[in-house]
């Protein structure tokens, strides 16, 4: 690719980004006005529910995601609540909302205990009128982000048939004892395999098998000598680091604040408002 072509592509990307921002801002302004010109009621707040981490990079990533959601959807109230380890904790965020409406969007990649138990219990103890959106995964936008991170790490989008026969990917995820979490991660692995044209084997940092080293050994025994690790984590942290250390070749960065992640967060928010999912029960008052 020539320098001129590279600059042209960069200019196109920048122009597309600006046009997307203008379109989103215009849509947000129009959404606040009814057909008769009267103001519409404020949209429910979006509460981004993160797990929490002792790694400061995780909180920085989540805050960047929040800012990009606000840029993409001006006028939408966007808040943050953590399940544990970081402030603000979700119960404190919900308490500050009073009895207002909110959609809780988990920054989690599959079904599991946090989605099924922790978040609903915290929501039920608050006055806020809440809905719980689906976890982020599985979804094609996650596969788009995983693919982009692999390419950034050195994965070749074009390879010979011989190279493809010796290549594979380990999809490194956090892990859960909930079988539906493994089902969701497995579906993401299949979607990524379809996108890459090579085998993708799920592996886990804890609570489930196989581990990343075990997955690497399985693929190596199948003749796969170029094995990349795709980090199926929303942000940097201990699990992502440990999985990366087990990579025999390249390791992709975590999903982070990729533009597709912003799109997916807003999609889950919108989807919750248009679905038939019942609002979560609020705190019973005497």
Short description:
With 286 residues, the protein is α/β, with parallel strands linked by helices. It is 48% helix and 14% strand. The protein has a four-stranded parallel sheet with strand order 2-1-3-4, with helices on both faces. Strands 6-5-7 form a three-stranded parallel sheet, sandwiched between helices.
Task: Name the strands of the widest sheet in spatial order.
Answer: 2-1-3-4
CATH class group of the largest domain: Alpha Beta
Distance between the termini: 69 Å
Q: Roughly what is the average pLDDT, rounded to an integer?
A: 89
How many beta-strand runs? 7
Give the count of helical stretches.
Answer: 10
Return the CATH architecture of the largest domain.
3-Layer(aba) Sandwich
Biggest sheet statistics? 4 strands, parallel
- Low-confidence blocks of residues: 1-13
Strand fraction equals 5-15%
What do we call the CATH topology of the largest domain?
Rossmann fold
* Morphology call: elongated
Helicity level: 40-55%
GO molecular function: lyase activity; metal ion binding
InterPro entries: CbiX-like (IPR002762), Sirohydro_Cobaltochel/CbiX (IPR050963)
Protein name: Sirohydrochlorin cobaltochelatase
Keywords: Lyase, Metal-binding
